[in-house]
């Protein structure tokens, strides 16, 4: 198979953070998405794939190719897969999970000090009501100027960026409490980043590219580890119409490696209108989804699928004491957003002689920051 890159002149960085904007008009969050519509999808099956041939030693190329073929099918048909056989130790996962929960349980005054201006350091602590992921989605097509107002996602977050100064961010910040937070997060970040490297090798094989094709884009990568706390919700009255825990969006980078503690995540291959399907929760597995860069690279062959986290319709937790009843349990997730180098140019890879690129080349870091800042209500001048 022959791939050729779609290259016009290389893009130059154009983003200039200028002012905060206020969203005043109410639209349904999805009304801002592209008018491009897909055929309704009756069912979406997220396959479970054993990734171990890419991690264990002494596996054959044939074993790897079989996994790569399964990945190719999932990327073409769903844009989501669940992986087992990842070999990340359970005690690391559980230790990091517990330290993260302990951080979220701290009083707000212990968390706020880790908030940073997102234009400079798009990580740290983001409190309740500070993000609307569907606005980041709208920014991709330049529709934020249409003044969207969508209710904020019901969550708080802590994110960690890369350690390497060459990645182009200020030094990492870690909460001092709980004491085991930093160590767990450092090791977890590196382990999951390592896993991402294996998955990208599998992607390269699936695309019939050289096995190390993606390595040139990740030697000073901008990946982020983000923990999300979705608090318990005591009353339906606390939820605005259309409000989600994480509103409908696609992820921005290459892949996301997600761990959750229960259901709530939904995907839709349809945009107009979306048709939502639950992603099954599988213990000790990671959910992997493809981000926008993978879709652009493959000229939309591979999917970067719309997803969201809902407030479940009926999740009443019974209790003898009516005051303790909650309509919706607390939920925690940890997402590793694998991003390539900020200065890397992503140009469509074309494989047919007469194939036309659906996308202009972009600078990965600009694309990412533009979407992230839009989701936290910061507009940039182009
Ligand atoms: O919490 C989850 O299950 C998914 C979160 C998510 O999609 C995101 O933050 O991008």
Largest sheet: 8 strands, mixed
Stretches where pLDDT is under 50 for at least 5 consecutive residues are 14-39
Enumerate the strands of the largest sheet in spatial order, edge to edge or round the barrel: 3-4-12-9-14-7-6-5
- Structural class by helix and strand composition: alpha+beta
Q: Helical residue percent?
A: 10-25%
Distinct ligands, ions and cofactors found in the model: 2-oxoglutaric acid
Mean pLDDT: 87
SS field, number of helical segments:
7
**Whole-number tally of structural domains:** 1
Assign the CATH architecture.
Sandwich
Please name the fourth-level CATH homologous superfamily.
B-lactam Antibiotic, Isopenicillin N Synthase, Chain
Q: What's the count of strands?
A: 18
Tell me, what's the shape?
globular
Order of helices and strands: EEEHEHHEHEHEEEEEEHEEEEEHE
Per DSSP, what share of the residues sits in E-state strands of 2 or more residues?
15-25%
CATH fold name, please?
Jelly Rolls
Structure explained in plain terms:
- The chain is 23% helix and 19% strand.
- It is of the alpha+beta class and 382 residues long.
- It has one domain (20-375): Jelly Rolls (Sandwich).
- The strands form five sheets. It has an eight-stranded mixed sheet with strand order 3-4-12-9-14-7-6-5. It has a four-stranded antiparallel sheet with strand order 8-13-10-11. The chain has a two-stranded antiparallel ribbon with strand order 1-16.
- The protein is globular, with a radius of gyration of 20 Å.
- 2-oxoglutaric acid binds at residues 228, 246, 251, 258, 260, 265, 307, 309, 333, 335.
């Amino acid at each position: 198979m022959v791939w050729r890159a779609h290259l016009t002149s290389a893009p130059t960085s154009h983003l200039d953070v200028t002012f905060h904007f206020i969203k005043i008009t109410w639209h349904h969050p999805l009304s801002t998405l592209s008018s491009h519509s897909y055929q309704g999808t009756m069912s979406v099956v997220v396959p479970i794939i054993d990734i171990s041939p890419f991690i264990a030693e002494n596996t054959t190329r044939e074993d790897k190719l079989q996994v790569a073929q399964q990945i190719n099918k999932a990327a073409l048909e769903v844009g989501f897969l669940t992986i087992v056989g990842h070999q990340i130790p359970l005690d690391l996962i559980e230790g990091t999970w517990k330290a993260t929960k302990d951080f979220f349980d701290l009083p707000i005054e212990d968390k706020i000090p880790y908030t940073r201006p997102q234009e400079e350091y798009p990580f740290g602590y983001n409190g309740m009501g500070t993000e609307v992921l569907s606005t980041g989605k709208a920014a991709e097509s330049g529709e934020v100027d249409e003044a969207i107002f969508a209710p904020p996602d019901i969550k708080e977050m802590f994110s960690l960026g890369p350690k390497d100064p060459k990645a182009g961010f200020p030094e990492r910040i870690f909460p001092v409490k709980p004491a085991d937070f930093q160590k767990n997060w450092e090791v977890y970040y590196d382990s999951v980043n390592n896993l991402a490297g294996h998955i990208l090798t599998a992607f390269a094989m699936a695309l019939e590219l050289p096995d190390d094709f993606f390595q040139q884009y990740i030697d000073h990568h901008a990946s982020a580890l983000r923990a999300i706390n979705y608090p318990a919700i005591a009353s339906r009255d606390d939820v605005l119409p259309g409000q989600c825990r994480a509103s409908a969006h696609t992820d921005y980078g290459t892949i996301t490696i997600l761990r959750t503690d229960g259901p709530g995540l939904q995907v839709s291959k349809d945009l107009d209108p979306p048709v939502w399907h639950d992603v099954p929760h599988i213990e000790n597995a990671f959910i992997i989804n493809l981000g926008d860069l993978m879709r652009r690279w493959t000229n939309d062959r591979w999917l970067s699928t719309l997803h969201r986290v809902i407030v479940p319709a009926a999740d009443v937790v019974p209790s003898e004491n009516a005051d303790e009843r909650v309509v919706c349990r607390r939920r925690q997730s940890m997402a590793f957003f694998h991003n390539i180098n900020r200065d890397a140019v992503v140009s469509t890879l074309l494989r047919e002689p007469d194939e036309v690129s659906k996308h202009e080349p972009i600078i990965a870091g600009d694309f990412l920051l533009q979407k992230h800042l839009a989701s936290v209500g910061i507009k940039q001048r182009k």
